[in-house]
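Fold it.
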Amino acid sequence: MDVSVIIVNYNTKELLQNCIQSVIEKTHDIQYEIIVVDNASIDGSSEMVKSLFPTVKIIAEKSNLGFGRANNLAAEIAQGTYLFLLNSDTLLLNNAIKILVDFLNHNADAGICGGQLFNQNLSPTTSFQKLPSLIAEWKVCFAPFLLQKKQPIYSTPTKVGFISGADIMIRKTLFDELHGFDPHFFLYFEETELTYRVKNLKYSVWFVPDAQIIHLGEQSGEPDAQKIDKWTFAETWYSRFLYAHKTAGYRNSNWIFRIHIAKGILAQSLFQLTRKQEKQTYWGKKNNLIRTQYHRYLEWKNATC
């Protein structure tokens, strides 16, 4: 078996159906299996898979394991030489899976690779990023003009920091050696932390633009003032502190907290002075959220370290 395609699903029945169909329609000239882990969906996702795709293996969980733990569960039964971790909100545009398999087959030093992601309108979207750092966090807060405005366009395979979690291909032997995703992460930063450990083993990470995939992602276009009330927004902050601790220790997490809280307090004070109540309220809520998630991280640290 060349590759095991693993799709983690949580209440995305229609997206999941379209994703699986695109894998079947676009993938050829390699041996593959599809494994779906359903995280206790209530929209009939598991029943749909069993009915429409009887050859697809499905693991129907009774609780939501999160992204990393669900992938780990599927990897335990996967038969492929490679694992292709694919989001349910994706659609293959070409024989992307074979392109990525061929790349890893011909590049022994490559541990992870991923393809070019597109928005629904076929405009390029974020496919990779640099690994997080304190300098980058400071730039985000106080010098955004120093950040790269647009992701570079590459026409040939290129080494990158880490691949978007929407389409990760990794050697199964390497995934097993690393014991998969860190189970402390429920959502967000788990692929970043895994990549950090892959690079510590001297494997490289590659962006392969010939492999092309639509990533629907969040299509709501909500303003920040609405996103801040979603639990996923809070989860990104908890995972951010967790990642910093896992890769560089408590001091790193503490500095990230200090940097973002300093900006938040400054922004809240500025909008209070200028009497912009809506923005003052937003920054007040954000500051409280960051503090809450930092204290949640500290509780984890004190309990496990």
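The mean pLDDT is 94.
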